[in-house]
Amino acid sequence: MAHLPPVAKAPPLLNVDRLTPFVDPLPRPPIAQPIRKNRIPLFRIPIHEFSAQIHRDVPATRFWGYGNSVPGPTIEARSGQEILVEWQNKLPAKHFLPIDHNLMGAEKDNPEVRTVVHVHGAKVPPESDGYPQDWYVPGLSKTYHYPNQQDAAMLWYHDHAMGINRLNVCAGMFGAFIIRDSQEEALNLPNGDFEIPLILTDRMIRADGQLYYPVSQLADAPWLPEYFGDAVLVNGKLLPYLEVQPRKYRVRLLNGSNGRFYFLTLSNSQPFHHIGSDQGLLANPVEAQRLAISPGERMDLILDFTNHAGENIILNDQTVKIMQFRVAKAKVADPSSLPPNLRATPRTPESTAIRTRRLTLEEVDFLTGEPDFHLLDGKRWHEPISETPILDTTEIWELLNLTDDTHPIHLHLVRFQVLDRRPLNTGVYLYQKKLVYTGDAVPPEPHELGWKDTVRATPGACTRIIVNFSGYPGRYVWHCHILEHEDNEMMRPYQVIAPPKA
Ligand SMILES: [Cu+2]
After folding, report:
1. Distance from residue 244's CA to the centre of ligand 1 (Å)
2. Ligand 1 center to 360 CA (angstroms)
3. What are phi and psi of 377, to 5 degrees?
4. Of 37, 77, 159, 444, which has the highest C-beta tally within 10 A?
């Protein structure tokens, strides 16, 4: 079990329980507009400092974000229509959150403020993927090319700068990136006003309304292995409400938190209907009373308020209120549908894999009481690249989680399917490198049967995924999406190799 380092005393924090809930309407992030609509539309998005109010009764909060809102503007794209985005770094020169110069990439000789944007879930050439070391400083811009040769899905963009990613994302650097296609549109799902992104990010907020990022008691090693705040922002607002009609809505849920997992239910016990996961639609809708979503994951949902006219329904994370849906009394027509068949998602046969890689998720503990950290396959970031899949081939990755925590593992560039999870004897593996299973393989949950790009690797288990490395040759990364882990060695480069010429 992680031995947590001593945490320095926090300044007075906002008492979330004493705020009046549900006084602010849920904002919808603005839709990004291209500055040029040629064959390849060009978007220009500044990354800069601004302030925004998270609640009616809380003073405005300083954020670093995209455009003028947190979350940033939603980029809407069509499958097959490439776009360009110029990401302009207009941030100040000094960071306002605590940098740990011991972390890889955040050494004292690097500039304090750096950024690079990654679109999570996008199939893009390596030079536009936002490689963590491709950061750039205030005053510079980078124009990235997004081919969008992939199925309709909600992706999301966020900062990925080496060693300070957790701070930049905490500061507000994230937004949605939605790809649409005609196949999805033919399903007649709720759209327009009836489609709502819900982006959850928890924050620690000081009594004066400002973001707080906790530090250890070691002045020159402030990094902490986890960040949890009791202020859960939904699209940037604390305890918002949304007025809805008694009909179906499509909710695009994203857990954009640094490290918090949510377990969501509705106060009237009405079910959610999963229609899609990270990388697009499921084959069929899956009904669920409770949603468990880890950092980086998305869920595409239908919420049906048809039989709940006049009710006030609260979305809860276990016992914590997150937001309120106010269902109007007057009945309305609902021309949208929830079709029983959504999109074919054939399972990838295991026999198509040309290689299986066994990769551990490990925790490194210091007896000295220094904060512990995590490694992928026992290797640090700077060690030579060891995962070199060949373009357009399929591999099985066995993620052996030898720790006591769930780690959401994300691979850039690709989509994959979850094969199963099987409990193993971690002690025997750690000390003898022998894989001894202690139970049967458990199939993925029904809502995990679609295409994924982030998978919960559960503790003491081997989580197997099957991945086709299609797209582009080049250098990418895979990492834990708990950003505190990612910033401290739980990230590795991998290289997609062009196939040898025949
Ligand atoms: Cu982790």
Report:
1. 37
2. 12
3. 55, 30
4. 159
> How many Å lie between the centroid of ligand 1 and the Cα of residue 483?
8
- So what's the pLDDT on residue 38? 82
Q: Quick check: helix, strand or coil at residue 219?
A: coil
Determine whether 426 is exposed, middle or buried from the number of CB atoms within 10 Å of its CB (0-12, 13-18, 19+).
buried
Per the document, the length of the chain is: 502
Distances in Å between the alpha carbon of 95 and those of 35, 92, 111, 328, 481?
A: 30, 7, 10, 45, 22
Question: How does DSSP classify residue 370?
Answer: P
Cβ neighbourhood burial of 214 (10 Å; 0-12, 13-18, 19+)? middle
Q: How far is the first Cα of the chain from the last one, in angstroms, to the nearest whole number?
A: 50
Q: State both tokens at 416.
A: 């994959």
> Which residues share a beta bridge with 496?
474
Q: How far is the CA of 362 from the centre of ligand 1 (A)?
A: 9
> Separation of 129 CA from ligand 1 center, angstroms?
21
Taking only the tens place, the pLDDT of each residue in 144-189 is: 999 999 999 999 999 999 999 999 999 999 999 999 999 999 999 9
Q: Which residue has the tokens 């990925």?
A: 160
Ligand 1 centre and the CA of 41: distance in Å? 37
- Model pLDDT for residues 353-397, shown as the tens digit of each residue: 999 999 999 998 776 656 678 999 999 999 999 999 999 999 999
Backbone angles phi, psi at 132, to 5 degrees: -55, -25
CA of 339 to the centre of ligand 1 (A): 36
In this prediction, residue 369 carries a pLDDT of 58
Q: How far is the CA of 295 from the centre of ligand 1 (A)?
A: 10
Å from CA of 203 to ligand 1 middle: 18
Q: Please give the Cα distance from 235 to 198 (Å, whole number).
A: 6
Question: Ligand 1: distance of its center to the CA of 200 in Å?
Answer: 19
Q: Which residues surround ligand 1, an ion (CB under 5 A)?
A: 407, 480, 482, 485
Q: Record the pTM.
A: 0.97
User: 291 CA distance to ligand 1 centroid (A)?
Assistant: 20
Q: How do beta strands 312-317 and 291-293 pair? A: unpaired
Buried b (16+ CB within 10 A) or exposed e, 431-465: eeeeeeeeeeeeebeebbbbbbbbbbbbebbbbbb
The 3-class secondary structure across 97-152, one letter per residue, is: CCCCCCCCCCCCCCCCCCECEEEECCCCCHHHCCCCCCCECCCCEEEEEECCCCCC
Residue that the structure tokens 């064959």 belong to: 39
Q: What is the pLDDT of residues 188-228, one digit of tens each?
A: 999 999 999 999 999 999 999 999 999 998 889 999 999 99
| Buried-state track 354-367, b at ≥16 Cβ within 10 A, e below 16 | eeebebbbbbeeee
Kindly give the distance from the C-alpha atom of residue 188 to the centroid of ligand 1, in angstroms, as a whole number. 38
